[in-house]
């Protein structure tokens, strides 16, 4: 591999001996930092070879195995590689069919690793409440972990609510991506309880769920307490005027909150006006998305806010009134 730092081999239909040879070369490299193998034919056997490379490499930091048939046993051997690695920081296993037991094995590795920071197990992975509880417990005690993506797993409220514990207890966790998981207001309230106590948490992504005003109000209160929170994305939810008004209050109260995405919710004129007034007074906020909301004549207030605070990017449908 020479002095190569990043190897992009996604979509090359690599399998069997090809994956084993590549893993051997990666293990021997003194410079390789990123290995991208998305959309190939990596299975348990290939995962075993890659796990050896991960554990022995002193430089490998990023491995992308999106859209491969890793499976439960493959995830388990990769977990052993993570636990033994002194360099790996990020593993992407989107649509890798790892199952709940595979995720539980990865959770154990997260707790043991001194360097591992980010895990993406979104998409087709057949996760359940047991593995989310295990992940939450491990993240709470992990030394370096910063970000978890479990979007598109349709886990439901009970499973996702376990993550409130991780948000509250972890000294390092910064980001959760929880889109398309059938999350409701009660789930969000559990996460918000943790968010308000965290000194590290920065970004929460909740697109395509069932979050309404009660959830938004709970999040707004937590954001107001937080000393670190920056970004809340809530596209395709059910937030209305009351939730928007609470979030406007959070914009005013927080000194770190910068981005609010409410694309395609139920915010009307009253909520839009409240957000516009908050933006006119803030010095730290940077972006608001209100596109596809029934804000009616609220566009006029947003236009005034845009002129008064040109540092903020405000997006809305101009046909909704100006």
Automatic annotation (TrEMBL):
This is Uncharacterized protein. The lineage of its organism: Eukaryota, Discoba, Euglenozoa, Euglenida, Spirocuta. One of its GO terms (molecular function) is small GTPase binding. Keywords: GTPase activation, Leucine-rich repeat, Repeat. GO terms for biological process: nucleocytoplasmic transport. Gene3D superfamilies: Ribonuclease Inhibitor (3.80.10.10). Coiled coil: none annotated. InterPro entries: Leu-rich_rpt (IPR001611), LRR_dom_sf (IPR032675), RanGap (IPR027038). One of its GO terms (cellular component) is cytosol.
